[in-house]
Each structure stands twice: as C-alpha cells, then as structure tokens.
Amino acid sequence: MKAGAAVLVTAALYLVLSKRDRDISMLLTVVVCCMVLGAALTYLEPVFTLFRRLQDLSSMDPEVFGILLKSVGIGLLGEIVALICTDIGNAALGKSLQILAIAVIMWLSIPLLTSLLDLVGNILSKA
Questions:
Q1: Both ends of the chain: CA-CA distance in Å?
Q2: What gap in Å lies between CA 14 and CA 11, rounded to an integer?
Q3: pLDDT in tens, 53-99
Q4: CB-hemisphere CA count at 13 Å for 102?
C-alpha cells in the first residue's frame, strides 16, 4: 500500500507543481510510475512461479509461456507509457505507442498461431 500512498501524494504534488513547473511535475510522475511498476513486479513473482509450475506439469514448450509473459509485459508497459504521453499533452504519440505495442504482441504471437493452425490441420486431416 506504500505504492498507493506514493501515487496519491504524487497526484497532489502534480496538481501543485504543474501550475509552476510542468517539466518537474512530469518527471515526478514518470519516476513514481517506474516505482509503482517495480512494486507491481514484486507482487507478480508468485504468478511467475505458478506459471513455471504449470509449465513443468503440462510439459508445454517454454517458448509458449515466454511469449505470454512478454505479451503481458509489453501490453502493460505500452499502456503506462501511452498514458504518460497523454498526460504531457501528446495523445497522438500515446495512441501510436499503443498501436506499436499491439503490433509487437501480434508479431510475438505468430509462433503460437502457427502451432494452432498446424494442430487444427492435423485434427481435420484425421477426421
């Protein structure tokens, strides 16, 4: 909950500082966003452990879980940076970054989709 308190304090400081020095207020926002992201990663460690366990039990290719984790990370990071871009007054840059994140996630998914197509093809050929 320290991260939540830091966000509230930062929001209040942003309101005060943005009237005087917009650059400092934006820098403060970026720093606190990075700190919150670091805090979120500590909470995600048990999730990563669970994914590793699921991977061991299912004997699934490690590449699949890697793609899933990378996709989630890219999506979250893209969203955070896009919001920061919007906050500094450049919504077009933020939307462009969101589109880039989606494109990268789709590119990462090509091996998964190819495997799925192969599986469907095998099932249909046996039917």
A1: 55
A2: 5
A3: 887 887 777 788 788 888 988 998 899 889 888 887 888 998 999 99
A4: 7
Residues making up the chain, counted from first to last: 127
- Residue 101: how many CB atoms within 10 A of its CB? 20
pLDDT computed for residue 10 by the predictor: 80
CB 75 within 8 A of CB 46: no
CA angle 92, 95, 98 (to 5 degrees): 155
- Our CA dihedral for 104, 110, 112, 116, rounded to 10 degrees, sits at 140
Contacts of 80 (CB under 8 A, 6+ apart): 33, 37
Q: Where are the domains of the chain?
A: 1-60, 61-127
* Distances in whole angstroms, Cα of residue 66 to Cα of each of 39, 56, 72, 106, 124: 21, 13, 10, 14, 28
Which residues 6+ apart lie within 8 Å of 30 measured at CB?
84
For the chain, give the mean pLDDT: 85
